[in-house]
Every structure is written in structure tokens, then in C-alpha cells.
Specification:
The chain is mainly alpha-helical. It has helices spanning 27-46, 56-77, 93-117, 131-150, 152-159, 165-187, 194-211, 216-232. It is globular, with a radius of gyration of 20 Å.
């Protein structure tokens, strides 16, 4: 018998029907996480060698890209369900979706600003583009797909009731982290040193590991089955 999965990606549980439903993080807590993530990104940027000078438009374009990366990292880090070795507090599904949507808007703005600042960046849309731009463009498509397919009407129409959406959603999110990291490191704007690349790899690896954390909802039914087996013997 499969373990129940009350904390679905696309819908918050009804606290009255789920025992000991963990309380969702409030706006203040989410802002604290966001502030800490931004400080971590700023520290990564300020580690020598520092960025070279650029026009205000380009700086804004880079800032929107980093803003999107921060939000993606935060969405990957904060759980939707109760997790082993993690506080009971979780992020609400609605806030999870909102952060992802803002990340998509910032990513699109990142692309538009670069195209507006330098028309030569149009070359990055052709097949001959550098690999880090391939990663960035594919990452934008993956992010857009994650956001769009999370909409309940579209999700239900595409996947139906028999296909588990969450494994597909998580697998795409894992790929997105790798694509974003490759894009950031390959662009060489702020990540322009082997030490910075190593730090980025560590952070990205931590996000991948955090996404694969095991939930208490999966552990508790297994423990109950073991207890029943012990009682039977």
C-alpha cells in the first residue's frame, strides 16, 4: 500500500483533515530567508576578483538574473511538506507558486534588458551560441514550463489523475538548478574565478541535496508498517 501524500505540490492540505499539519511560514519568515539568500549571493559577488564596471542597464540586467536565481534557490530550499531533520514549519503552496512566478518574471526581464542594452546579444538566440547561453535559454524554458504546468487546470489536463505530477516537477527543478549554475559560471560576469565557481558548485549541490530530502510523511507510514509486523510476530 502506497504511503499517503497529503502535502501535494499543487494544493495545501486541509488542516482539519490532516493530523498535525505543520504551520506554514509567514511573510516575515520568508522575507528573512530571502534576505539571507540575497546576502549569500552578495558575498559570492564581492569575493575577489570583484565585478568589472558596466553600464547601469547591464547592471540592472545582471541584477534581475541574480534575483531570479536567488528565488529559484529559495523555492528549492524551503519545503512544502514536513521533512526529516528540518523544523516542522513549511512554506505554503501559494507562496511557493508566487516566488516561482516572480522568478520567471525576473528571468524574462533579465533577457529583455540584455537585448535592449546590446543588440549583439541577439546572436545568443541562434544555434551557434555559447554553451552557457544554451543553458540559460533552456533554463528559461524549463522555468516557464514548471510555472505553467503547476497551474491546476493545465496540470490536470496534461497529466490526468493517473500520472504523479510531483516526481516530474521535482526532476525538472533539479535540472533547472544545474542549468542556472552553468549559465552563471559560464557568463563569467560575477563568477570569474575558479574559487567562485567552486563556491557556486557547492551551493548548487546543497540545493540539489535539499530538494531530495526525505519527507516525514513517507517515513511515518513505513514505521507504522514495521510496528504492525512486530506485533504480528
Amino acid at each position: 500500500m502506497k504511503a499517503p501524500e497529503p502535502y501535494l505540490v499543487w494544493r495545501d492540505p486541509d488542516p482539519s483533515s490532516v493530523a498535525e499539519a505543520p504551520e506554514a511560514l509567514g511573510k516575515r519568515d520568508v522575507r528573512k530567508w530571502l534576505r539571507n539568500a540575497a546576502l549569500l549571493a552578495l558575498l559570492l559577488v564581492l569575493v575577489p576578483p570583484t565585478p568589472f564596471l558596466m553600464s547601469p542597464l547591464w547592471l540592472l540586467a545582471v541584477a534581475t538574473g541574480y534575483g531570479a536565481a536567488i528565488l529559484i534557490g529559495l523555492v528549492m530550499l524551503l519545503p512544502l511538506r514536513r521533512l526529516i531533520l528540518w523544523p516542522d514549519a513549511r512554506i505554503s503552496v501559494e507562496r511557493h507558486k508566487r516566488l516561482a512566478e516572480i522568478a520567471l518574471v525576473l528571468s524574462a526581464l533579465h533577457t529583455v534588458l540584455f537585448l535592449a542594452g546590446e543588440t549583439l546579444t541577439l546572436e545568443y538566440l541562434w544555434p551557434s551560441q555559447p554553451r552557457f547561453m544554451v543553458a540559460g535559454n533552456v533554463g528559461l524554458v524549463v522555468l516557464a514550463s514548471l510555472v505553467v504546468t503547476s497551474l491546476e487546470r493545465i496540470r490536470a489536463r496534461l497529466f490526468g489523475p493517473r500520472v504523479r505530477f510531483r516526481p516530474i516537477h521535482v526532476s525538472a527543478a533539479l535540472a533547472l538548478v544545474v542549468l542556472v549554475a552553468a549559465h552563471m559560471a559560464g557568463s563569467g560576469i560575477f563568477i570569474a574565478h575558479p574559487m567562485k565557481t567552486a563556491l557556486l558548485a557547492i551551493v548548487s549541490g546543497a540545493l540539489l541535496a535539499a530538494t531530495l530530502r526525505r519527507s516525514k510523511e513517507r517515513q511515518e507510514p513505513e514505521a507504522a508498517l514495521r510496528d504492525r509486523g512486530a506485533e504480528a510476530t
